[in-house]
What does this fold into?
Amino acid sequence: MKKYILYTGCLLLLISVHGCDDFLDKPPLDKLVNDESFWVDEVSLRAYAQDFYSTYFVGYAQDYRVFGGYFSGDSYNDDFLLTSDNVSDTNQRLFFPTSNTTGINSVTALWTDQYRIVRKANVMLEKIPEMGISEEAKNHWTGIAYFFRAMAYSALVKAYGDVPYIDIAVVNAEDYEILYKDRDPQVMVVNKILDDYNYALQNVRSDDGLRQVNKAVVGAFMSRNMLYHATWLKYHGTTVGPSSQPVNNEELSKFFRGAIDGAVSVMESNEYSIGNTYNALFTSESLADNPEIIFYREYTTGIATNALMAYNAKEDQRLGGATIDAIESYLCLDGLPIGQSPLYQGETKPSIENTFIDRDPRIYDTFVDSLRILNSGLFSAASPTGFASKKFLNEEWLLGDSPYITGLLSPADAPVIRYAEVLLNYVEARYEISKIGGEAFSQADLDKSINEIRKRTLTKWAETPSVNRKLPSVTLSGNSLAVNNIVIDDPDRDPSVDPVLWEIRRERRTELMMEGRRSDDLNRWAKFEYLNTGTSNNPNKKVLGAWIDKADYPGISTAVQLFDPENPGATPTEGYISYFSFSSPLRTFVKGDINSERNYLRSIPAAQITIYKDKGYTLTQNPGW
It folds into this structure.
């Protein structure tokens, strides 16, 4: 099986394009797009395309803070909350407070960076037809350009909704009307995105060698992004607020079909499968032979390494931690939710030790199954919520005191996109399209997606004797799902979400925990009300941590504050860890209120509006900003 990785030394390829000629005689590198001597062969095209890779395939990044979107990089959702309510952090995706003015949302970097990629792709598209390469090569590289243009416009649409659509590279004086046109409707832009993905899916090579995008990578990202656009438009309409209009089912079906087609192309390639590993997907020195990995970023000692391993090893996880709401979303080992399963042991005393008994096997590969409270005076490598993450921790390296678990020294490869997500994209798109006139959702759809993932058999770390665990498969039962002939009836289900869709979304939440997908999911489902935190006197489980009885931990610091939902005004000795800062208003999303709804889109950057105005043109703002 061939694997595809992100090369960390792209500059070497760029330097080698023109052989050993004296580089001092060459034009500046930033003029290559207009240097006809550059556009000569596939080596030139490959060198030119490498800049796209560093934009979209960042993996775990190489920093101590955002980790490329993993762990704390996808914060301010119902899975993970930062310990700080600092709204000036431009690296975090903020949805609240609703009292914000344009603030962080006016930062222009995302806008300018993505339009730089759009222009770069458009240049490539204009140059390829004149090159003296084979038609097959032209089609492949045209597909690569279309793929990355689709990626750029997907990022823009996710952030801003309506955006100006520009498909030319060189703008002359007579083209100013194009360069400074106002925003095009989101539905129109998403149609263009779909066209680009479809061309790429049909023409990008199935194998273009190591470190290069191939057809499976195109299909995987097509499934992710087209599902996002289809569901966003279904649940929001054309924009946010009272001016939004419903999108017709014909358009929505086309977009859902795009997500399905992308996923099916990967599924039918027979190149990928679900293996009997989970933690190893995120903690291995090499992902080259892992059957679940479609694309990954390679880290190598001495070239590029990351800090995520250290942050999941001996360091305190001070940036934040998982919420009790996230922990309770995991099923019990019988495939039933905690509010329905007889296996759940946390009804009267919901300690970590009790609540982790007989749960979804993935929970043991994601979180430490014992308490670790930050600033308690009792624990190291602790979390402010008591739930210490170990999803990104190689425990063999930890026990062996490897240098990889310190600082920025981890060479663990990062999965950029993996097969399980593609299967989850598929099953959600299939269910959604079946509700708007598409082919009926079937057991076969479950068998090739969720049930395929549930074939994964995991062994709980250091369990003696070792026990292999896996969740039971699910079956359709009328308008619900069932396991072992028991219909799933989650008492905590959002009543506005169909029972089948609720379980599909649950499977996605737990499978992709802390992988940077949850905030996007809540956005496209129009479910920011899930982010509400309650009040300072009565916070809910979106901001609470593990349950503890202080009597079980003699000497525990008084700095550890608890909250007892049964007695909100008390200072309890038993309750959930309450770490959230109340110095600012808690998150309150009011459905239908434009001051809340506007947070589903960022504001159009003020700097861009000013640029338009100075040129005599108008760039409209998003509703509510």
User: Anything to note?
Assistant: DSSP finds 20 helices and 15 strands in the chain. The longest helix spans residues 135-160. The two ends are 49 Å apart (CA to CA). Confidence is low (pLDDT under 50) at residues 1-31, 85-95.
